[in-house]
Amino acid sequence: DIFAHFGTTGKVLEPCKGDGAIFDLLPPDAEWCEISEGRDFFDFAEPVDWIVTNPPYSKTRPFFNHAAALADDIVFLVPARNVVSGYGFVRDARACGGTAEIRWYGTGSKLGFPMGNAIAAFHWKRGFIGPTKQSFYDEREI
Q1: H or E stretch at 13
Q2: What is the arithmetic mean of pLDDT over 4-32?
Q3: 102: Cβ–Cβ under 8 A, 6 or more apart, which residues?
Q4: Global model pTM greater than 0.70
Q5: 72-119 residue pLDDT tens
Q6: Closest CA to 121 of 88, 78, 83
Q7: Would you state the torsion angle of the CA atoms of residues 73, 40, 76, 137, taken in this order, to the nearest 10 degrees?
Q8: Distance (Å, whole) CA 55 – CA 18
Q9: What b/e string do you get for 98-111 counting C-beta neighbours within 10 Å, with b at 16 or more?
Q10: Distance separating alpha carbons of residues 56 and 97, to the nearest angstrom
């Protein structure tokens, strides 16, 4: 849904490949990082069009800040609290351009995440000015 909804095109990076839950859905020429395979995202320096990932929750803000230096469009699938509970992160996002959209996916427990918090895909777009759009993966959840 993320790729179809946000229309990811161009050069895409998945900085936390893990077992491939996101990476396996990307185009064949997508770039990837995975620290356990010797490719640390924080060492990646090549510009890309899109970064799409489910980052380590304890490093959501550092991952965002590095992603903002590399890409014009960033999508993180995370517990919403990881983004909005600290005002510093909100300021960082605004400095890069802003939050273009929040796509709500439901609660973590319904989606197979290890918690019941609200899960959303945050789309940040360099140079974005305007109100943040909100959408829902499953309209029946509203």
Answers
A1: strand 12-14
A2: 93
A3: 80, 120, 121, 122, 123, 132, 133, 134, 135
A4: yes
A5: 999 999 999 999 998 999 999 989 888 999 999 988 777 777 778 899
A6: 78
A7: 110
A8: 10
A9: bbbbbbbbbebeee
A10: 23
